[in-house]
Amino acid sequence: MDSGEQNLIKSYYLLQKVADNIKLPLIQILHQAQLGKINNQTDLDQIEDIANFSLKMIDNYVLGLNINDNEFNLEPLSLSSVLYDSARELDKLANHYGVKLQVSINNNFGPVLSNRMALEGFLMSVGLSLIESASSTNNKVVTLATHKCRYGVVAGVYAKEINLSSSILRQGTKLIEEAKRSMPEFSHTNGAGIFVAEKLLNNINMKLMVSKHRNLKGIGTLMTTSKQLQLI
Amino acid sequence: MKVLLVEPDKILQKTYANALESSGNVVVGVSSAQQALNELNIEIPEIIFMELELTKNSGIELLYELRSYGDLDNIRIVILSTIPEKEMLKKFGDFKEQFNIYKYLYKPSATINKLIELTK
Questions:
Q1: Which residue of chain A is at minimal alpha-carbon distance from B84?
Q2: Out of A38, A55, A68, closest to residue B112 by CB
Q3: Count of CB contacts below 8 A, A vs B?
Q4: Residues in chain A closer than 8 A to B9 (CB atoms)
Q5: In chain A, which residues have pLDDT < 70?
Q6: Of A74, A121, A217, B112, which residue has the fewest beta carbons closer than 10 angstroms?
Q7: What is the pLDDT of residue A71?
Q8: Distances (CA, A) of A103 to A57, A150, A206
């Protein structure tokens, strides 16, 4: 291993430690806000929800690094339950951004083989990015959806007026090491949520892709249903 | 309820102590395993909330100590930690059963209301 690789690994672990360290002040903020609410202080919901969500983002990032092996065992999953659970979490944050969150499940596809933690992490990370992006458009609606396609079932997060395409995503992936904001067409933030989501999916051999749901654009992932699993 | 709070972070220690005291508990807050053992020599609490990541002696060492004394067997132990439970299970196997842990709370998803509820 050359010194460049050693430095890279060191930076990788250091970044994980930094992410873990940032959790402490966020936990302090979260729990002080909850204490304030118990003591009848008002206007603390937003602080509580944002701290809570930031902690989840850090956990997703650390999970995506996959430091611990065997974290991502595949399991039969009901997509609708994963979508509704993720929507419940995202809804609080969407409210603060003035964004309406919807869930759209077209059919009952039966169970898919995936990993709940990775899939929920993917939906939450992408969901946050789309909420941030949609909040500055005229159509402030974000939809968590699943639909059938030729190759299987797609689950993802969608919005109407966001500027997102395969080429923007490809370019963003290329620019992540060089540019401060790798997808300025899509978001005013650095779009880190998308890349955290991509890492989570890669850990279960799934891919992040630009996708369409009815007349909406967004980011999804493809899964196959299994006839055998449908018996479960 | 008499509560022993083993929390190394002073800000969190104060937050949790205020919350638990506001619901009528008597709280003694300490920062380390050694201080916790000293407190246990003075008074035996009904419940202990403890972080596992402590300076010098770890929370696991404190658990070994706690569960080696017969007169401390009945204390409810609640882990309130920044380490996810899954990670602990991987490292130490079924430590919850081994140390008779009443509840494991992961700090980012624990709520102040939950802490109060556990003292009722």
A1: A59
A2: A38
A3: 46
A4: 24, 28
A5: 66-71, 176-181, 190, 226-232
A6: A74
A7: 67
A8: 21, 22, 22
